[in-house]
Design goal:
The complex is a heterodimer of chains A (112) and B (141). With 112 residues, chain A is α/β, with parallel strands linked by helices. Chain A has a single domain, classed as STAS domain (Transcription Regulator spoIIAA, 2-Layer Sandwich), CATH 3.30.750. Helix content of chain A is 41%, strand content 25%. In chain A, β1 and β2 form a beta hairpin. The longest helix of chain A has 16 residues. With 141 residues, chain B is α+β, with helices and mostly antiparallel strands. Chain B has a single domain, classed as Histidine kinase-like ATPase, C-terminal domain (Heat Shock Protein 90), CATH 3.30.565.10. Helices cover 32% and strands 30% of the residues of chain B. Chain B is built from 3 helices and 5 strands; from the N terminus they run βααββαββ. A 5-stranded antiparallel beta sheet of chain B has the order 1-2-3-5-4. In chain B, β2 and β3 form a beta hairpin. The longest helix of chain B is centred in the middle third of the chain and has 23 residues. Chain B is globular and about 40 Å long. The chains are: A alpha/beta (112), B alpha+beta (141). At the A-B interface, α2 and α3 of A face α1, α2 and α3 of B.
């Protein structure tokens, strides 16, 4: 899975450079997030601008990251979500679990 | 594309790298339907998702058989009905016993069947010969 990491404003921003998150690559995403958390990087924003499709396993990978970050007094938030992807969070009510921001600036302000 | 009869049949190895292919077929079909007057972009996403979830379900349930196991998927559009059948060779499962996700305490798994049930009009899972068939129907009118 094509992922980029950047340290910004005290946050680790994980840029997902894939159009599709499904059961073929969601395991890799889950591991990548878990690896960050194990390294002590527990304030994470996942930037989803390029993602136009997510399935149940992709939602599960992000939820796993959210729970693991929370266990370590951290936070995993989401930014730049496309409308169709957002509708999957709404359908599963996961929009009530995650903080979802329009873009990174809004995320930094919201989390400050 | 004429809606009267479209039939697509694809057989894939039980490998997740083919999910994109199967989902994309559904997405393309949704974009080419003549008579559909609803939200075409939403239907395209939903068919992509439902085919992806149904196929991964079949891959998971089929892997106990053999490494060269396959999953067959058929998509048929006749008049205003879109019919998806996904065949696996595994032990099968009880569709009726799959619970709704717990929305207050969400878990990582168990959302696939929920998506299929919520986004489509009818779902059944039956034994046919040496296969299990997950049959999904969406009315297009």
């Amino acid at each position: 899975m094509n992922l980029n990491l950047e340290k910004m404003n005290d946050y680790t921003v994980l840029f997902i450079k894939e159009e599709r998150i499904d059961a073929h690559n969601s395991g890799e995403l889950k591991e990548a997030i878990l690896h960050l958390i194990e390294q002590g990087q527990v304030k994470i924003i996942v930037q989803l601008e390029h993602v136009r499709f997510i399935d149940s396993s992709g939602l599960g990978a992000l939820l796993s990251g959210y729970k693991n970050a929370a266990t370590r007094s951290g936070k995993l938030a989401l930014a730049n979500m496309q409308q169709q992807v957002l509708s999957m969070f709404e359908l599963t009510r996961l929009n009530r679990v995650f903080d979802i921001y329009a873009d990174l600036n809004e995320a930094f302000e919201g989390e400050a | 594309m004429c809606n009267s009869i479209i039939q697509v049949e694809v057989t894939i190895p039980t490998q997740t790298k083919y999910l994109d292919l199967i989902g994309s077929i559904g997405e393309h079909i949704a974009k080419e339907l003549d008579k559909f007057s609803g939200d075409r972009e939403a239907l395209a996403y939903h068919l992509n998702l439902v085919l992806t979830e149904a196929t991964i379900n079949a891959i998971k349930h089929g892997t106990q058989a053999s490494p060269d196991d396959t999953v067959k998927i058929t998509i048929t559009i006749q008049e205003n009905e879109l019919n998806i059948k996904v065949y696996d060779h595994g032990q099968g499962f009880d569709l009726e016993s799959v619970p709704l996700p717990d929305f207050d305490q969400p878990k990582e798994g168990g959302m696939g069947i929920f998506f299929i049930r919520t986004l489509m009009d009818s779902v059944s899972y039956t034994r046919q010969g040496d296969c299990n068939v997950l049959e999904i129907i969406k009315y297009l009118s």
